[in-house]
Design brief:
The protein is of the alpha+beta class and 210 residues long. 45% of the residues lie in helices and 22% in strands. The chain has 2 domains: 6-85, Phage tail protein beta-alpha-beta fold (3-Layer(bab) Sandwich), CATH 3.55.50; 89-196, no CATH class. The chain has helices at 13-24, 32-38, 55-66, 82-87, 103-113, 143-163, 169-185, 189-196; strands at 6-12, 27-30, 45-50, 68-73, 76-81, 90-95, 128-133, 136-141. It starts with 5 loop residues before the first strand and ends in a 14-residue tail after the last helix. Residues 165-210 are annotated as: Disordered.
Length: 210
Protein backbone atom coordinates (compact mmCIF):
# COMPACT_ATOMS: atom_id res chain seq x y z
CA UNK A 1 0.00 0.00 0.00
CA UNK A 2 1.18 3.52 -0.68
CA UNK A 3 2.00 5.92 2.15
CA UNK A 4 -1.34 7.64 1.56
CA UNK A 5 -3.08 4.61 3.04
CA UNK A 6 -6.82 4.07 3.06
CA UNK A 7 -9.14 6.36 4.99
CA UNK A 8 -12.93 6.40 4.68
CA UNK A 9 -15.67 7.64 6.97
CA UNK A 10 -19.32 6.67 6.51
CA UNK A 11 -18.57 5.66 2.92
CA UNK A 12 -20.65 3.19 0.85
CA UNK A 13 -18.95 -0.14 0.35
CA UNK A 14 -19.25 0.16 -3.42
CA UNK A 15 -17.19 3.38 -3.33
CA UNK A 16 -14.43 1.68 -1.38
CA UNK A 17 -14.43 -1.14 -3.94
CA UNK A 18 -14.12 1.42 -6.75
CA UNK A 19 -11.19 3.00 -4.91
CA UNK A 20 -9.41 -0.36 -4.69
CA UNK A 21 -9.92 -0.97 -8.40
CA UNK A 22 -8.59 2.42 -9.43
CA UNK A 23 -5.82 2.85 -6.88
CA UNK A 24 -4.31 -0.62 -7.09
CA UNK A 25 -5.38 -1.72 -10.56
CA UNK A 26 -6.93 -4.96 -9.32
CA UNK A 27 -10.32 -6.35 -10.22
CA UNK A 28 -12.55 -6.29 -7.13
CA UNK A 29 -16.18 -7.35 -7.22
CA UNK A 30 -19.02 -7.71 -4.73
CA UNK A 31 -20.77 -11.07 -4.51
CA UNK A 32 -24.13 -9.30 -4.55
CA UNK A 33 -26.44 -12.34 -4.19
CA UNK A 34 -24.58 -13.72 -1.18
CA UNK A 35 -24.18 -10.29 0.39
CA UNK A 36 -27.89 -9.55 -0.10
CA UNK A 37 -28.76 -12.78 1.70
CA UNK A 38 -26.42 -11.70 4.49
CA UNK A 39 -28.13 -8.32 4.72
CA UNK A 40 -25.33 -6.20 3.27
CA UNK A 41 -25.91 -4.10 0.16
CA UNK A 42 -23.44 -2.08 -1.92
CA UNK A 43 -24.60 1.07 -0.12
CA UNK A 44 -23.55 -0.29 3.29
CA UNK A 45 -21.58 2.43 5.07
CA UNK A 46 -18.08 1.56 6.27
CA UNK A 47 -15.38 3.32 8.25
CA UNK A 48 -11.70 2.53 7.99
CA UNK A 49 -8.55 4.34 9.06
CA UNK A 50 -5.49 2.48 7.78
CA UNK A 51 -2.18 4.26 7.26
CA UNK A 52 1.21 2.94 6.26
CA UNK A 53 0.06 -0.63 6.02
CA UNK A 54 -0.25 -3.21 3.29
CA UNK A 55 -3.30 -3.57 1.09
CA UNK A 56 -3.95 -7.02 2.51
CA UNK A 57 -3.94 -5.76 6.10
CA UNK A 58 -6.23 -2.84 5.24
CA UNK A 59 -8.61 -5.06 3.32
CA UNK A 60 -8.77 -7.52 6.22
CA UNK A 61 -9.49 -4.66 8.63
CA UNK A 62 -12.30 -3.46 6.40
CA UNK A 63 -13.89 -6.88 5.96
CA UNK A 64 -13.58 -7.85 9.62
CA UNK A 65 -15.89 -5.05 10.68
CA UNK A 66 -18.52 -6.38 8.27
CA UNK A 67 -17.88 -10.04 9.14
CA UNK A 68 -17.05 -10.70 5.48
CA UNK A 69 -14.20 -12.35 3.62
CA UNK A 70 -12.91 -12.71 0.08
CA UNK A 71 -11.93 -15.26 -2.52
CA UNK A 72 -9.52 -14.89 -5.44
CA UNK A 73 -10.36 -16.66 -8.68
CA UNK A 74 -8.81 -15.98 -12.11
CA UNK A 75 -7.34 -12.72 -10.84
CA UNK A 76 -10.67 -11.44 -9.48
CA UNK A 77 -10.96 -10.59 -5.80
CA UNK A 78 -14.54 -11.32 -4.77
CA UNK A 79 -15.88 -9.84 -1.53
CA UNK A 80 -18.37 -12.30 -0.11
CA UNK A 81 -19.62 -13.90 3.11
CA UNK A 82 -17.43 -16.02 5.37
CA UNK A 83 -19.66 -18.99 4.57
CA UNK A 84 -18.97 -18.65 0.85
CA UNK A 85 -15.24 -18.26 1.53
CA UNK A 86 -15.24 -21.65 3.23
CA UNK A 87 -17.26 -23.29 0.46
CA UNK A 88 -15.53 -22.02 -2.68
CA UNK A 89 -12.44 -23.83 -3.87
CA UNK A 90 -9.92 -22.55 -6.37
CA UNK A 91 -7.17 -24.50 -8.10
CA UNK A 92 -3.54 -23.40 -8.19
CA UNK A 93 -0.36 -24.97 -9.55
CA UNK A 94 2.67 -24.84 -7.24
CA UNK A 95 6.23 -25.33 -8.44
CA UNK A 96 8.50 -27.24 -6.06
CA UNK A 97 11.77 -26.26 -7.75
CA UNK A 98 14.46 -25.35 -5.26
CA UNK A 99 12.82 -27.26 -2.43
CA UNK A 100 15.26 -29.63 -0.73
CA UNK A 101 12.37 -31.82 0.42
CA UNK A 102 11.09 -34.99 -1.18
CA UNK A 103 7.86 -34.41 -3.17
CA UNK A 104 5.90 -37.04 -1.25
CA UNK A 105 7.06 -35.54 2.04
CA UNK A 106 6.01 -32.08 0.86
CA UNK A 107 2.60 -33.42 -0.14
CA UNK A 108 2.22 -35.01 3.29
CA UNK A 109 3.38 -31.86 5.09
CA UNK A 110 0.94 -29.63 3.21
CA UNK A 111 -2.10 -31.86 3.66
CA UNK A 112 -1.37 -32.59 7.31
CA UNK A 113 -0.65 -29.03 8.41
CA UNK A 114 -2.87 -26.79 6.27
CA UNK A 115 -6.59 -27.25 7.01
CA UNK A 116 -5.95 -30.96 7.72
CA UNK A 117 -9.60 -32.00 8.03
CA UNK A 118 -10.64 -30.38 4.74
CA UNK A 119 -8.88 -32.71 2.30
CA UNK A 120 -10.94 -35.16 0.28
CA UNK A 121 -8.77 -38.17 1.16
CA UNK A 122 -9.16 -37.33 4.85
CA UNK A 123 -12.94 -37.22 4.82
CA UNK A 124 -13.27 -33.54 3.86
CA UNK A 125 -15.16 -32.03 0.94
CA UNK A 126 -13.53 -31.58 -2.47
CA UNK A 127 -10.14 -30.16 -1.48
CA UNK A 128 -7.28 -32.15 -2.94
CA UNK A 129 -3.57 -32.01 -3.67
CA UNK A 130 -2.20 -33.93 -6.65
CA UNK A 131 1.49 -34.48 -7.34
CA UNK A 132 1.77 -34.13 -11.10
CA UNK A 133 5.50 -34.84 -11.05
CA UNK A 134 8.52 -34.29 -8.79
CA UNK A 135 8.39 -30.53 -9.37
CA UNK A 136 4.67 -29.73 -9.57
CA UNK A 137 1.71 -30.06 -7.23
CA UNK A 138 -1.83 -29.01 -8.15
CA UNK A 139 -4.02 -27.99 -5.22
CA UNK A 140 -7.74 -27.23 -5.01
CA UNK A 141 -8.47 -25.43 -1.75
CA UNK A 142 -10.08 -22.37 -0.21
CA UNK A 143 -8.47 -18.95 -0.52
CA UNK A 144 -7.39 -19.05 3.13
CA UNK A 145 -5.71 -22.43 2.68
CA UNK A 146 -3.90 -21.22 -0.46
CA UNK A 147 -2.56 -18.26 1.54
CA UNK A 148 -1.18 -20.62 4.18
CA UNK A 149 0.35 -22.87 1.52
CA UNK A 150 1.97 -19.88 -0.16
CA UNK A 151 3.41 -18.72 3.18
CA UNK A 152 4.74 -22.18 4.02
CA UNK A 153 6.44 -22.69 0.67
CA UNK A 154 7.89 -19.18 0.83
CA UNK A 155 9.33 -19.83 4.30
CA UNK A 156 10.90 -23.10 3.19
CA UNK A 157 12.44 -21.53 0.09
CA UNK A 158 13.85 -18.78 2.29
CA UNK A 159 15.37 -21.40 4.56
CA UNK A 160 16.99 -23.13 1.59
CA UNK A 161 18.37 -19.83 0.30
CA UNK A 162 19.87 -18.98 3.69
CA UNK A 163 21.46 -22.42 3.90
CA UNK A 164 23.43 -21.75 0.70
CA UNK A 165 24.57 -18.24 1.67
CA UNK A 166 28.11 -18.14 3.21
CA UNK A 167 27.25 -14.97 5.10
CA UNK A 168 24.30 -16.69 6.72
CA UNK A 169 25.74 -20.17 6.99
CA UNK A 170 25.03 -20.58 10.68
CA UNK A 171 21.49 -19.23 10.52
CA UNK A 172 20.89 -21.16 7.32
CA UNK A 173 21.83 -24.42 8.96
CA UNK A 174 19.30 -23.74 11.69
CA UNK A 175 16.51 -22.89 9.29
CA UNK A 176 17.38 -25.76 6.98
CA UNK A 177 17.19 -28.04 9.98
CA UNK A 178 13.71 -26.69 10.60
CA UNK A 179 12.79 -27.52 7.03
CA UNK A 180 14.12 -31.06 7.45
CA UNK A 181 12.19 -31.35 10.68
CA UNK A 182 9.05 -30.34 8.83
CA UNK A 183 9.70 -33.05 6.24
CA UNK A 184 10.16 -35.71 8.91
CA UNK A 185 7.69 -34.74 11.60
CA UNK A 186 5.11 -32.25 10.27
CA UNK A 187 1.84 -33.73 11.39
CA UNK A 188 -0.12 -30.94 13.05
CA UNK A 189 -0.65 -27.18 13.03
CA UNK A 190 1.91 -26.71 15.82
CA UNK A 191 4.52 -28.40 13.64
CA UNK A 192 3.69 -25.97 10.84
CA UNK A 193 4.03 -23.01 13.20
CA UNK A 194 7.41 -24.17 14.49
CA UNK A 195 8.71 -24.80 10.97
CA UNK A 196 8.07 -21.30 9.65
CA UNK A 197 8.78 -19.58 12.95
CA UNK A 198 5.54 -17.61 12.85
CA UNK A 199 2.03 -18.88 13.48
CA UNK A 200 0.17 -16.98 10.77
CA UNK A 201 1.62 -13.50 10.38
CA UNK A 202 2.07 -13.79 6.61
CA UNK A 203 -0.64 -16.26 5.80
CA UNK A 204 -3.45 -13.72 5.92
CA UNK A 205 -1.79 -11.12 3.69
CA UNK A 206 -1.57 -12.19 0.03
CA UNK A 207 -1.18 -8.54 -1.01
CA UNK A 208 1.85 -7.80 1.14
CA UNK A 209 3.75 -6.59 -1.92
CA UNK A 210 1.38 -3.69 -2.59
Amino acid sequence: MTSAGMEFTDTPLEEVVAFLRNEYNIEVQLDTPSLDDFGIGPDKSVDIQARNTTLGAALQLLLNQLELGYTITDGVLMITTQEEVELRLTTAVYCLDGMDIRPNAMHRALTQTVAPSSWQDKGGSDAEAILVNDRTIVISQTTRAHEQIHALLGALRSAMKDATSPAKEHAGRGRAAQARALEETAHDQDGYNRAIGNSDADASDPFGGF
